[in-house]
Structures are given as structure tokens and as C-alpha cells.
Design goal:
Layout (H helix, E strand, L loop, with lengths): L14 E4 L5 H10 L3 E6 L7 E2 L1 H8 L7 E6 L4 H11 L3 E4 L5 H10 L4 E7 L9 H4 L5 E5 L19 H10 L4 E4 L7 H8 L3 E4 L4 E2 L2 E2 L1 H20 L1
Helix pairs in contact: 3-4, 7-8
């Protein structure tokens, strides 16, 4: 079920997804800067990064193709995720909880035309064992720096970097494209690309100032990615 893109010969440029979009203006800014995708964090559980489903739907409705729109959902069943998709109409659903294989298969049946991306929080090398469990049912993975098994669980948006050596091994082992998230900024984008070789980079906090998307930080990040890709291609 993997994307045809993962079968293409490398080199492929690094895709960029700008997450935590909270307004039409932020979406336009991200797209103008060259983002391949914009992401929205739904209000379950509520946090400073979330917006209501009707706001998500309104912004998604005006995002032009071919820009992908990602709904980050915390719903934990196929039926609930499918209902969330129907409310917001994204091109892609980013699944935060770890579904059972049965629920993953059901979601694929319920929403065959929506791309499905499974979030994996890299707390240790056990993350690699999740590849065969989810690969038959999703189109890509997204590696983040949350700690869902901690005494006080955290589910991304931490601004923290996890162990990229594990992420690099995950990319090598995965039959599907892999996005890298967690603690990314213009300062480490090139290092992330060099060390992990992800399909794409996904970030939120590293391009924000006082919670708002920062045009200068965004431009610096996109430039760093382009330069890293050029350097990688010339090697």
C-alpha cells in the first residue's frame, strides 16, 4: 500500500510540512514559503496548538492543490477517525494514537482515498518493531519526540530532538516514506537531512515566535532545507 514515490530512485528533494497552522494567514504564509503540506492539530486534547474542527475545515477548503492538508487526530478508533475526516476533509490524516491492526485495517476500508500517516514517538529502538505492524495499512510514518509512556504523557509539539540514530535506522528499515519531526529548526535542518535522510521534515515550534508563525524563521528554515538538498545532490 506504500506510495509509488518510495519506489523512485533517489535523490528526491526533502518535503516540508508546516504543522500547527491556526489561520488562513498562516496557511498562506507557509505555502508562499514553499511548504509541500500544512498541518492542523485538532482540539482533542486542547492545547495552545489546537483549533476547532470547523476552523480546520474552513482553512482546508481554500488550500490549493497540490498542497497536502494533514489533520492530526487523537481519535482512537477507525470509526471516530473516519468521522473526524468527514468533518474536516483533509487530504491526509495523521494518526496520533497507536491503533490495533484491526482498527488500522478498518480505517483503510472506511477512508481509502485519504492518505494515512502513522505517528511513532521515538522513545527507544522498540520503535522499529512498529514498522511491520502498521506498514500494510498506512502510506507513511512520522517520527516525533513525544513520550506517551511517561508518567505525564507528551504527544509531540515538544520542541525536543529525539535520537536521530534510531530515526535513521527506522528510515532504512521502512518500506514507506518517513517524515521526521521534533526539535527541528533552521539551525539543524541540514544535519537532520544528512543524518536521517527522511522523506520529509515536519515542524511547528521551531518556526514560531510567541506562538505565531514567524515569516523570517520560516524563510530561514526553507533556505536551509534547499541548501542541504543541493549539497546532498552534489555529493
Amino acid at each position: 500500500m506504500g506510495s509509488d514515490e518510495c519506489e523512485m530512485p533517489f535523490f528526491m528533494r526533502t518535503r516540508v510540512k508546516i504543522c500547527c497552522i491556526r489561520s488562513d494567514a498562516e496557511a498562506r504564509m507557509a505555502i508562499a514559503a514553499g511548504a509541500d503540506a500544512v498541518g492542523f492539530v485538532a482540539q482533542r486534547p486542547p492545547s495552545p496548538r489546537t483549533i476547532a474542527d470547523d476552523q480546520i475545515a474552513g482553512i482546508i477548503a481554500v488550500v490549493p492543490p497540490p498542497i497536502a492538508t494533514f489533520l492530526l487526530t487523537s481519535e482512537s478508533s477507525a470509526d471516530a477517525i473516519s468521522a473526524h475526516i468527514e468533518l474536516t476533509r483533509p487530504t491526509t490524516v495523521q494518526i496520533l494514537p497507536h491503533l490495533t491492526q484491526r482498527e488500522s485495517a478498518r480505517l483503510a476500508e472506511l477512508q481509502p482515498h485519504v492518505r494515512r500517516v502513522q505517528v511513532i514517538h521515538v522513545e527507544g529502538r522498540e520503535a522499529l518493531a512498529l514498522i511491520p505492524a502498521y506498514a500494510p495499512y498506512v502510506h507513511a510514518f512520522l517520527l516525533d519526540s513525544g513520550s506517551p509512556n511517561a508518567a505525564i504523557p507528551r504527544f509531540g509539539g515538544t520542541g525536543l530532538q529525539h535520537d536521530w540514530a534510531i530515526s535513521a535506522d527506522f528510515v532504512k528499515a521502512s518500506p514507506l516514506p518517513v517524515f521526521l519531526a521534533g526539535g527541528l529548526s533552521a539551525a539543524n535542518a541540514a544535519d537532520a537531512i544528512r543524518r536521517v535522510r527522511p522523506f520529509g521534515l515536519d515542524l511547528c515550534t521551531g518556526i514560531r515566535t510567541e506562538g505565531l508563525l514567524d515569516e523570517t524563521k520560516l524563510a530561514s528554515f526553507m533556505l536551509a532545507v534547499r541548501k542541504a538538498d543541493e549539497a546532498f545532490q552534489s555529493d
